[in-house]
């Protein structure tokens, strides 16, 4: 959270499964749309928070399967575990507050007496979360009986039913909503209370997110019956919560537009970058747009037109250098020539490129350094390069690419790097 020194302009707190991630979209198009919007318009002054029911183990698995960005804050196990930054530093203060009137042994002992409850995988049983599967038809009755048993044994617990099959038992003070309230309080004491907060969800464990004061909310179009029912009974007249028309991450973009929380045009919705001139010189934008162009060029989705590569070449310094992750050095202009030859070589193939953690700093007047993680999905293989770009700009002229350097990130196991272009 040290990344920002002033209050974030927007904080998005989003569930993952069936909200940020559409498991019915094998191309991940809506997620990629969101990613480029976030890196283009929000990363530099906003916070991205993922709030998932998954344990750290299953969360990390999902990160390997889907092109998820790196969030600033990760809330896992239905609001019982909060971590910060890329290295996921745990919030021990939060854990301490959850011990109140909580006894894992008693919770398990009582819950195991119900034959309707089937214990979930071992990875999903956490210090402050015990999880089961239960049939939809039995859920209400079991929940009622369980609460009575816990009350008798002096425990103050919360039972949440999600996705028409999952039943989680948590301390009363836990849950996605309480975790968000805790986070907002913490940010406020640090002088970083977000200007706007948008909560996004699709199922029962997300309902609490929509009752936190001053928070905008979006239930994506594909929201589960139990969430829609909760909304109809509890939040129908709250104009700050909408049921989007669009699925998953596209529903989040829709809500940004609906509540006027900032830009809502994803670079992926712009078909011709030559026509898309931004008023302000912004080197971060330049990089996001370039890698998107690069994806489309190799997929053969833009016209094979000289004007594109000529304009790219013109924006490279004549003696600009590209350091390939293998260590080999080439001139930037030669690299563009190489790119010209690869037009359409990924047509009809699984090939996607996305930027993560784009960070632009202006070192000296007229000079910028942009750092980012550049990801490339190539068939079943995924690679990430830490990329640093140096730009210069003269008064009244556009940005000039001076130097590009790439190194393999620790997540990429690279055996052969000859297919990597830029
Ligand atoms: C995730 C978790 C699971 C939990 C469910 C609903 O799927 O893996 O343990 O029950 O979310 O919160
Ligand atoms: Mg979900």
UniProtKB/TrEMBL annotation:
Catalyzes the final step of sucrose synthesis. Residues 283-410 form the Sucrose-phosphatase C-terminal domain. Homodimer. Its EC number is 3.1.3.24. It catalyses: sucrose 6(F)-phosphate + H2O = sucrose + phosphate. SUPFAM superfamilies: HAD-like, NTF2-like. Belongs to the sucrose phosphatase family. Residues 9-260 form the Sucrose phosphatase-like domain. The gene is LOC104785950. It comes from the Eukaryota. It comes from Camelina sativa. Its cofactor is Mg(2+). Keywords: Hydrolase, Magnesium. InterPro entries: HAD-like_sf (IPR036412), HAD-SF_hydro_IIB (IPR006379), HAD_sf (IPR023214), NTF2-like_dom_sf (IPR032710), SPP-like_dom (IPR006380), SPP_C (IPR013679), Sucrose_Phosphatase (IPR051518), Sucrose_phosphatase_pln/cyn (IPR012847). NCBIfam families: HAD-SF-IIB, SPP-subfamily, SPP_plant-cyano. This is Sucrose-phosphatase. Pathway: Glycan biosynthesis; sucrose biosynthesis; sucrose from D-fructose 6-phosphate and UDP-alpha-D-glucose: step 2/2. The lineage of its organism: Eukaryota, Viridiplantae, Streptophyta, Embryophyta, Tracheophyta. Pfam families: S6PP, S6PP_C. CDD domains: HAD_SPP. The keyword Hydrolase applies.
């Amino acid at each position: 959270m040290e990344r920002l020194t002033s209050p974030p302009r927007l904080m998005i707190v989003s569930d993952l499964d069936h909200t940020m991630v559409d498991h019915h979209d094998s191309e991940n198009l809506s997620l990629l749309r969101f990613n480029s919007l976030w890196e283009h318009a929000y990363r530099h002054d906003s916070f991205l928070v993922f709030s998932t029911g998954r344990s750290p183990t299953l969360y990390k698995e999902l990160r390997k399967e889907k092109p998820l960005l790196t969030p600033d804050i990760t809330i896992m196990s239905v609001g019982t575990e909060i971590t910060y930054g890329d290295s996921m530093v745990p919030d021990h203060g939060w854990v301490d507050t959850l011990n109140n009137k909580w006894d894992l042994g008693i919770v398990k002992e009582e819950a195991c007496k119900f034959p309707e409850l089937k214990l979930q995988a071992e990875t999903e049983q956490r210090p402050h979360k015990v999880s089961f599967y239960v049939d939809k038809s039995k859920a209400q009755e079991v929940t009622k009986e369980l609460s009575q048993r816990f009350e008798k044994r002096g425990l103050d617990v919360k039972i949440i039913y999600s996705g028409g099959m999952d039943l989680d038992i948590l301390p009363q003070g836990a849950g996605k909503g309480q975790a968000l309230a805790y986070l907002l309080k913490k940010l406020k004491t640090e002088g970083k209370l977000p200007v706007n907060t948008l909560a996004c969800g699709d199922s029962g464990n997300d309902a609490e997110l929509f009752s936190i004061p001053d928070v905008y909310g979006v239930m994506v179009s594909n929201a589960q019956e139990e969430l829609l029912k909760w909304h109809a009974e509890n939040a129908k007249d709250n104009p700050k919560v909408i049921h989007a028309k669009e699925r998953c991450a596209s529903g989040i973009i829709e809500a940004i537009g609906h509540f006027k929380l900032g830009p809502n045009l994803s670079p992926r919705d712009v078909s011709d970058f030559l026509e898309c001139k931004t008023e302000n010189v912004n080197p971060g934008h330049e990089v996001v747009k370039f890698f998107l162009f690069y994806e489309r060029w190799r997929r053969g989705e833009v016209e094979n037109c000289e004007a594109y590569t000529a304009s790219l070449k013109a924006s490279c310094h004549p003696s600009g250098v590209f350091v390939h992750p293998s260590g080999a050095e080439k001139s930037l202009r030669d690299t563009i020539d190489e790119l010209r030859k690869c037009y359409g070589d990924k047509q009809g193939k699984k090939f996607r490129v996305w930027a993560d953690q784009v960070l632009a700093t202006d070192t000296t007047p007229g000079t910028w350094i942009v750092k980012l993680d550049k990801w490339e999905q190539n068939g079943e293989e995924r690679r990430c390069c830490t990329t640093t770009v140096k730009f210069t700009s003269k008064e009244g002229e556009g940005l000039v690419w001076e130097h590009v350097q790439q190194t393999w990130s620790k997540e990429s196991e690279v055996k052969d790097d000859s297919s990597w272009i830029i």
